Amino acid sequence: MGERIGLREAWRTLSNPAARGWRAGVVQHGPRLLVLVALSVALHLLFPVAPLPDIPVLEKGMVSDQDVIAQVPFPIYKTDQELQRERAEAAASVIPIFDYVPGAVDTMEARVRAFMARIDSVVARDGGVAAEQAGVRAVAAANGLPVTPEVIELLRGARSRGILARSLVLTIRTDLPTGVASATELKESASTQVRIRRGGTERTVPRDSVLTAPYLYERSSRYLPWNAPQGAAELQRLLLIRFFEPSIQLNAAATELAREQARAAVPTVKGHVLRGERIIGAHEQVRDAELQRLRAYQDELTRRGHLQSGAEKWKRAGGAILRNFLLLLGFGLLLRFYRPRVYGAFRQVLVLGVIVFAVAVGAALVDRFDAPPELIPTALLALVVAALWDGRMALHLALIVSILLAVQTPFLGMSALLTMVAGGAGAALSVRVVERRSQTWVFIALIAGTYVAMAVALGLLRSSPIHDVYRSARWGVLSATGSALVAMGVLPLLEAFTHITTNQTLLELANMNRPLLRRLALEAPGTYAHSINVANLAEAAARAIGADSLLTRVGTYYHDVGKIAKPQYFIENQPQGRNPHDRLKPSMSAAIVRGHVLEGVRLADQYKLPESVKAFIREHHGTQSIGFFLEQARQLNPSAEINPAEFTYPGPRPQSRETALLMLADSVESAARVLQDPTPERITALVNRIVETKIAAGQLDECPLTFGDLSRVKEQFVKVLTGMYHHRIDYPAPARESAAALPLGPVAAKPSGAG
């Protein structure tokens, strides 16, 4: 427990330095700069630079404007696809090896004799014909033979059984030693020849010349006498099939060893380029062969860079790291000046760094396995960032990361850059149109569409064959699918770590069929209706001042869930004329009313609501006093010393604009419900009075609302309330109007403790 508290304090220190001055600046900015430096170094390690100056950036379909001359000799290695194809051809050319197995004759004969012995033992038992038939039938069925009456009688009869036994043994001893193989094993290889090893010698023969089991079955009938019983030939064939043992058997281990040796013999190099030789000539179009030579040259330069040491190597490494740092610094400064809340939360900065590093590792794997650039997961990065923060920030980061990867040696050129930008931009902008995680297919369709469009554009620009365009589009669709699925899988973990609640999560929480909201509607229907009305007010105000309207609405839905525990003690849930507070002491009533905040937090924990929603439960009453019961306690016992803390909500005061809007909307809606003659003028006066009361009580001191914000908020409150109540006629007031103006919500209106 102590370790968790210590870690929490460390995060808090990194996010909110306690003091001002250069030391606090080091504490706040130092770790963030270290994240940038670590990413810059990691990128250099993943994509090391060559020791020689960079060669011209050329792509397939382009025309070189100068000669590219090799400064060092280098081999041209075959591609993985070429090696796999040639190795497969070499392995297929290996002739399968078969061994002669002399013991097969004894094995097969022993099987036949054991079967006949079992039949003899069954027939020899005393028990009559029926028992013999039943026993023979059981032995035949156990060996997979048909149990027809004809077969049973052939096996029961001593003469027919003896004829079968002699013919089978003669077949096995005469034909099997000549060499009989399994037809299945012969067909496993595409080779037209086989190598047969027998008696220390080996010979290669045509595969068709090797005798197989069907040959043995056909020849066996000649060993039956001319007067053999009907059906004996067919039963003999079935017994040979059942007990067959090939005398020529495939040696799988020796054959595979020969194939492996054939694969290893395939050369990995298909050519060499000498120092001073031209790689690509000026005014020549870059085709597959030229592109392969150019990449082989780049690989050789990179390899020599790993082998070299000295000042030149460190200079180029330093330049690469500085280049990476400056590109990343651009995004860091964007956070510092335009997203200060993200920059101030070190957890979130760290998550951004991890996401960028993960994309870089994915790009390194793409390079390692020579995969298409569509598989670089910039779309995954943009999806996660857009879901956790916003699409604009995701688009900026996707652009910077795309540029950062496009300047690395393996991805130099416009094709990779444009492909990464397309995927990242499509992902960043697609989040706006998706409202639930179940609509993941929308992510996939939009991102895939951008990949396909870019593949077509590049194909037309380069005059690429249609199959190249199709291949690029297909990889783009696969990348879009994988990015969307992975993003939806990791988002809950990142939400928990960063304490960010995404719009998708909020939209799911806003579903009125959520278990906790269903409980509120069933167990405290008045509170439920009150929450809906307050949500309409608060959301309208949030939109007017640019606050998070979705978070405001969802938080308002849940702010009073604590009333589920004792709904009858709150006025909106009480039937006319019944007030259980009349039988309680003021201190007990106050404890019940203030307890709905603590009970709401407990229910929020039970139903796993995010921290951003819990804040609405904790802060919607701030540290206001429960004035009605406090005044009642003083009137009942004027001389007693009253502890104000017993009549004060636990707080804290609103810390954000959204929770402050809830506090104001909560009180305004409660007071407006008991307002007599709700004309626009009276509603305006009521709203102004309640807002001024909150300001005077200091309840808005800790939230970032400005006076300009409050002016627009009051305008929205008046507009919405006027629309709700302008058609109403006068109703009997449940409490004096002046009480409705107090900063206590419905509690002030009646001694029933609403709000």
Put the structure in a nutshell.
With 755 residues, this protein is mainly α. The chain is 63% helix and 5% strand.
Low-confidence stretches: 728-755
Number of strands: 10
User: CATH class of the largest domain, anyone?
Assistant: Mainly Alpha
Counting H and I runs of at least 4 residues, what is the number of helices? 31
What's the CATH architecture of the largest domain? Orthogonal Bundle
Query: What general form does the structure show?
Result: flat
Q: How big a fraction of the residues is strand?
A: under 5%
Spatial strand sequence of the major β-sheet: 6-5-3-8
Overall radius of gyration: 42 Å
How many independent structural domains?
3
Q: Tell me the major beta sheet.
A: 4 strands, mixed
Structural class of the helix and strand makeup? mainly alpha
Descriptors:
disordered C terminus, Hypothetical protein af1432, flat, 3 domains, 755 residues, mainly alpha, four-stranded mixed sheet
